[in-house]
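Q: Sequence in, structure out?
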Amino acid sequence: MKYNKTVMTKLINQHRELHDELKKIKVEMGLEKNLAIKALYHSAVADNGPFMLEYQELERRQ
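A: Exactly. Output:
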């Protein structure tokens, strides 16, 4: 499974908790949006993260 910004953005838009976590990462770590999205991918999706299956489903639909 590879990081895909478009798929990750769709996932974030579907889940308020991911949206809130993205804002938190941007503020706490001082990251720009693109890097914060990538960090969120690694914490919430990659390596059997809680949103991995939903991410894979969105990826298949593309």
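The chain has a mean pLDDT of 97.
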